[in-house]
Amino acid sequence: MSRVKRGVTKNKSRRNLLLQVKGYRFGRSTKERVANEAISHAGAYAFKHRRAKKREFRNLWTLRINAASRTSGISYSKFIGALKKKSIALDRKSLSALAKDYPEAFSRLTEQLKN
């Protein structure tokens, strides 16, 4: 069997690894072992924070809806309960956008729910 030298493939994998950590500081951007560790941590954080981002945005929408509904004299929980009772199928994201960008339309909606 013929001899296989691994230099080309090894250098290619090293180059690809170091391209992924471009911009990192200190040994993380130049040393292969440290760079590999940095990539695995970065991937784990990226996965975790993609999930956390969804939670944080839902919290933000809730805060906006609560603040806007309180100005009309109704609490968040009563507001959401009234929406469900009247079968108004608006999600929190669109309600938040309505409260932020069109406050007069949101206040009309809350007045309808109060009656």
TrEMBL record:
GO biological process: ribosomal large subunit assembly; translation
Keyword rRNA-binding found: yes
Domain of life where this protein originates: Bacteria
GO cellular component, one term: ribonucleoprotein complex
GO molecular function: rRNA binding; structural constituent of ribosome
Family classification: Belongs to the bacterial ribosomal protein bL20 family.
Name of this protein: Large ribosomal subunit protein bL20
Gene (UniProt): rplT
